[in-house]
Amino acid sequence: MKTILQINTVLNKGSVGRIVQGIGEVLQDNGWESYIAYARYGRSDNFRLIKIGNQVGVYSHVLGTRLTDRHGLYSTKATLNLIKQISSINPDVIHIHNLHGYYINYRVLFQYLSKINIPIVWTLHDCWPFTGHCVYFDTCRCDKWKVCCKDCPQINTYPKAFIDRAEQNFLDKKKAFTLPDKILFVPVSEWLNELLKESFLKKYPSVVIRNGINIESFIPNPNLHFNEQEGKFIILGVANVWEKRKGFLDFIKLAHFLSDDFVIILIGLNKKQMRKCPPNIIGISHTESISELASYYNRADVFLNLTYEDNYPTTNLESIVCGTPVITYNTGGSPESIFPNNGYVVDKGDINAVLRCIDKIRNGEMEEKSVLINYAKNHFNQNICFREYLKIYENLIG
User: Fold this and answer.
1) pTM check: above 0.85
2) Which residue in 85, 92, 162, 276 has a CA-CA distance of 20 to 30 Å to 320?
3) Distance CA 193, CA 207 (A)
4) Cα angle 255-335-6, degrees, rounded to a multiple of 5
5) Per-residue pLDDT tens digits for 270-317
6) Are 62 and 56 in contact (CB under 8 A)?
7) How far apart are CA 358 and CA 302, in angstroms?
8) What does the alpha-carbon distance between residue 203 and residue 208 come to, in Å, rounded to a whole number?
9) What confidence tens digit (pLDDT) does each residue in 197-219 have?
10) What is the Cα Rg of the chain in Å?
C-alpha cells in the first residue's frame, strides 16, 4: 500500500487543519495509507496520527522566539523523535504544510530530508518559507525578501519577537530549504505562485492547487434565520483570530455607516474585542462545530472578508457553497474565488465601495442562491481539488 505522511501544525482545526484532514480522507478513499504528524488539536479516528512534541515544548519555542527571533529553530528533541518515526514508516511521499507554529526545528528536519530519497510536496499557505520573519508583507509593502530580509518592519507581528534577526533567519531558511533535490511546491493561489517565482525557492517546480472544502458539511438551509434579527440585513464576518490584518477595525468603521436595518455578526472575537463593538455588531466566540458555522453562513445575506493580507481564504468558499455572496478586499489570492455571479472585489480600506456593494446585493443585483451553490459544487469541492494531489503523488513515485 502506498503511504503518505503529512506534516502540519494542527489537524482538523482552522482552514489548514481541515485541508490536511480533507487530503487524508481523499487518500484513504483511493487506497492510500495516510499518516498525519501534528503538534496541536489533532483528533481523528480515520488516520494514523503522530503527535509532535508537547505543550511544554511549544511554550519553550514561543519563549525562544520572543527572546531571539529564531522561530523554527527550537523543538530539536521533538523533531528528532519525528524523524525516527518517519524512518520507521518510510513513506512514499512526505507532504509538508505549515512549519511555523512553535513545534518543529526546520533546520534539523531538512538536513534529514536532504539525505533520504523521498519526494517532498510542500503546500504553501503563506509567505513564511521565503521571508526572514513574517507570514505576509502586503500591508507594510516590503520587498526585501526578494534579495535578503533585514531591518524587519514587522518584527512585532507573528511570530512576534523582541529583537530583529530577520537577516540571519532569511539566510538560514535559504540554506535549509534548498538542500533537498526533490521538492514540488504547491501554492494555493496564483498570487502566491508569482511571489514564489521571485523568491530563493524559484529553482523548484511549482503547481497551483487551490483549496477545497467539504461541501457536504456546508449544506445550504435557507429556512434558518436569526429570530431576534428578523427582517434585518445580516452581514457576516468570520476569522480564526481577529488580528489587525483581518480587518476588525474596518468592521467597526462600517458599523457606523449602517442604519438600524442592518446587523453585523462577527465570529471568532475575544472578550476584549467584543467590548469594543458598537450595538449593531454581535460578537460570537469561536465555534468548533462545522454545522453551526454553516448555519451562520446560511443565515447571512452577505459575507464580508475585509482582510488586508491573505492567501486563498476558505471562508470565501464556505460562504459561496451556502449560497451567500462575498465581498472581499483586493488582496492576495482572495479575489481568485470571486466571479461576477458570486460576489464583489473592492480596494483595501474602501468602506464606501463596500457599502455600494452591500446595496447592490440588498437590491437583488446578484445571482440566485442556487447559481452560487452550483458554482461552488463544481469548483470548491475538496474531492475534486484534492484529487490533484493524488496525480502529483503518482507522478512523483512513478
Assistant:
1) yes
2) 276
3) 8
4) 110
5) 999 999 999 999 999 877 678 888 989 988 999 999 999 999 999 999
6) no
7) 8
8) 16
9) 999 999 999 999 999 988 888 87
10) 21
Residues 6+ apart with CB under 8 A from 16: 8, 9, 10, 97, 98, 125
Q: CB burial class (10 A; 0-12, 13-18, 19+) of residue 362? A: middle
| Look-up of cell digits 474602501 | 350
DSSP 287-334: ---HHHHHHHHHH-SEEEE--SS-SS-HHHHHHHHTT--EEEES-TTG
What pLDDT, in 10s, does the model give residues 91-120? 999 999 999 999 999 999 999 999 999 999
Please tell me whether residue 155 adopts helix, strand or coil conformation: coil
Q: Side chain identity at 365, as an amino acid letter?
A: E
CA–CA dist 364, 380 (Å, integer): 24
H/E run at residue 182: none
Residue that the C-alpha cell 503518505 belongs to: 4
Nearest to 136 by CA among 151, 154, 150, 149: 154
* Contact of 252 with 276, CB cutoff 8 Å: yes
